[in-house]
Amino acid sequence: MNEVGPCRHRKPGRPEQPVRRGLTLLEVLATLAILAVVAAMALPSMSALQQRHRLVAAAETLASDLTEARFEAARMGQALHVQARVDNSGMGQGGPGNTGWCWAVSTQSQCGCSTAPDPASHGASAPACQLKQVQASEYPGISLLAPLQVLLAPQGGVGAVASTELQSRHGDRLRVEVAALGRNRICVPAGAKALPAGRYASC
């Protein structure tokens, strides 16, 4: 007579649970390594995309301020000034020669912006002659390549045709041009990389 060993009885209605196997340390490390490589490859592209967005935002803000100043000059019956300054002192961030910048919309030609605000002002409000001021710190990594001085007459004209260019750390550039009647446009300068989707025409 054969001996029958002890048998295991399953409870009715409860199938056997499969054995669960966790990740080994080697698998976790391999996954982390792959993720690190993918992140390192994507980082430059993300940085360039962010800089491109800031460049577009800065150029469109300047163009918008010029347009608003043109209409405001006509409404007020008073000439307005849009002045952009470049600071070469190295106090800001960016490449040599364009390390700091600002622009302001004002009622007087002597009421431009300061690229290095006085720390003693403790965030004091702008002078009464200024309608708006924009600082480089609002667009990190974006450089203003040349100063700009535009006089917007109440009749809609400008003192002289003017333009300036903005550039990102990755070399993308946009130009803001002001025509004789005070209208402005954003374009891509000759030799600069065109932005995706042909957003702006060549100058």
Structure description:
The protein is built from one helix and eight strands, in the order αββββββββ. It has a four-stranded antiparallel β-sheet with strand order 3-2-1-5, covered by helices on one side. Strands 4-6-7-8 form a four-stranded antiparallel β-sheet, covered by helices on one side. About 3% of the residues have low confidence.
- Percentage of β-strand residues: 15-25%
Strand order, main sheet: write it out.
Answer: 3-2-1-5
Q: What structural category arises from helix and sheet content?
A: alpha+beta
Q: What is the string of helix and strand elements?
A: HEEEEEEEE
Gap from first CA to last CA: 102 Å
Q: What is the CATH H-level superfamily?
A: minor pseudopilin epsh domain
Q: Output mean pLDDT.
A: 80
Uncertain ranges = 91-97
How many individual β-strands?
Answer: 8
CATH class: Alpha Beta
The number of helical runs is: 1
**CATH architecture annotation:** 3-Layer(bab) Sandwich
* Helicity, as a percent range: 25-40%
Shape: elongated
Main pleated-sheet profile: 4 strands, antiparallel
Radius of gyration: 30 Å
**How many structurally independent domains?**
1
Summarize the structure.
With 203 residues, the chain is α+β, with helices and mostly antiparallel strands. The protein has one helix spanning 25-76; strands at 80-87, 100-106, 130-135, 143-144, 148-152, 162-167, 173-178, 184-187.
